[in-house]
Amino acid sequence: MDDERTWSIAELADEYGVTLRTIRFYEEQGLLTPARDGTRRIFADGDRVRLGLVLRGKRLGFPLDEIKKIIGMYDAEPGEVGQLRYLLDQIEHRRAELEQRRRDIDATLSDLAELERRCRADLNRLTG
Amino acid sequence: MDDERTWSIAELADEYGVTLRTIRFYEEQGLLTPARDGTRRIFADGDRVRLGLVLRGKRLGFPLDEIKKIIGMYDAEPGEVGQLRYLLDQIEHRRAELEQRRRDIDATLSDLAELERRCRADLNRLTG
DNA sequence: CCCGTACTTGACGTTTACGTTAACGTAAGT
DNA sequence: ACTTACGTTAACGTAAACGTCAAGTACGGG
C-alpha cells in the first residue's frame, strides 16, 4: 500500500471543516508547508496530520504562534545536548500549562454539575 | 464576622494580576457590575467571585461573550419551566464542549509524554 | 473558442480584548 | 498651596485570525 495519496486544498478544507482562506493563512504563518505543482498546493499525509494538530491546539484556545512552537517541538531534529535540555524544559512548561487548563475544566464541569442539580430540583418542584 | 469587606479597582486588579483597564472593560461588557461611591467603583465579594470566573473562562480560551453567557447561567432566576429546560440544554452543550477540550488536552499530554521519552532516550545516547 | 470550476495572489475589512494617551477630579500628606 | 496617589471618562491604537472581495491563471468539456 502506498500512502502517497495527496489532497487538494479544497479536499482538506472540506474534511476538517475550515475555509480555504484559513488553510492559506496557516501556510502564510508557517504552520503548514504543502508542496506545489506549479502554483497549486499539494498536501501530503504529513500536512494533514499537522493541520489536525493545529486545529486541536485551536480548540484548546492556544494562539497560532504558540501552536507553531508546540508543533515545532514534535519534529525538531535530535540535535545537540543543549537543544535537548531546552526542549525537555519546554515540554515541562507546556505540560504544566495543560494541567492548569484541565483543573479549570474540572472546576467548571463541577460548577455546571451543581447548577444542573439545582435546575432539576426546581424543575421537579414546578412539574413534579 | 461581616463579609461586608469591599475592594477598590486597584486591589482587585492587583490580586488577580490584571490591569485596571481590563476590569473597566469587563464592566463595560457587562461581565462585572460593581457598586459606586460617587464615580468610584466599589467591589463586593460577589464581584470578586465573578472576576475569578471570568479569568477561568479566559484561561479556557472562551471569548468574553461566551463567558458572559456561562456566568449568566449561574445566577439566573429559577424562572419558568421553559427557561429551566433551556438552561439545562445550555448546560449540556457547555459540558460537551468542555469534555471535548479535555480529550484534546489528554491527547496533547500523551503526545508530549511520547516526545519526552524520545528526548530522554536521545539524551542518554549522547551523554550516557 | 468559450464556459465553468478550481485554484492563485494581493489587499483591505472586521472582530475581540484590551493598551495607551489625554484630560481631569478628589483626598491625603507636608 | 503644592505634590503625590489613586481614581475617572473618552477616544484612538493595535494584534490576532481570519472574512471578503478583486483580478488573474489553469484546465477539461462541449
UniProtKB/TrEMBL annotation, chains A, B:
One of its GO terms (molecular function) is DNA binding. The keyword DNA-binding applies. Residues 6-73 form the HTH merR-type domain. Gene3D superfamilies: 1.10.1660.10. The keyword Coiled coil applies. Residues 81-118 form a coiled coil. Signal peptide: none annotated. It holds the Pfam family MerR_1. Keywords: Coiled coil, DNA-binding. It comes from the Bacteria. This is MerR family DNA-binding transcriptional regulator. It comes from Jiangella rhizosphaerae. The lineage of its organism: Bacteria, Bacillati, Actinomycetota, Actinomycetes, Jiangellales.
